[in-house]
Fold:
Amino acid sequence: MAKVPAAAVAASGLIGGYAVARWTRKRPLGGAALAAAGTVAAYEWNRQAGPRAAAGLTTAYLAAFAGSHPLAKKIGAWPAVFAVAGGMAAASWAVTRRAA
Structure:
């Protein structure tokens, strides 16, 4: 089985969660997608970098989700989602790469 980097899972969770919520018009479905990807990413962060890194990155993941909302009012919804997803992917990559 191919291993998918936690950075890609986290970024996909932010993008996918928004996409599901927008296209189904059911925000709880988007939240479920966001939570599922966040859970997988947190498991990988813990496995690769330990519990402190996992806690920090999980907090960053939630902050990225929350931060995308006010950012969307300034730059638009999709640009905001892509911006926070990119930032989250970069943070995840930096922390897990450093731990390896």
User: Anything to note?
Assistant: The chain has one domain: 7-99. Residues 51-75 form the longest helix (25 residues). The CA atoms of residues 42 and 91 lie 13 Å apart. The mean pLDDT is 94.
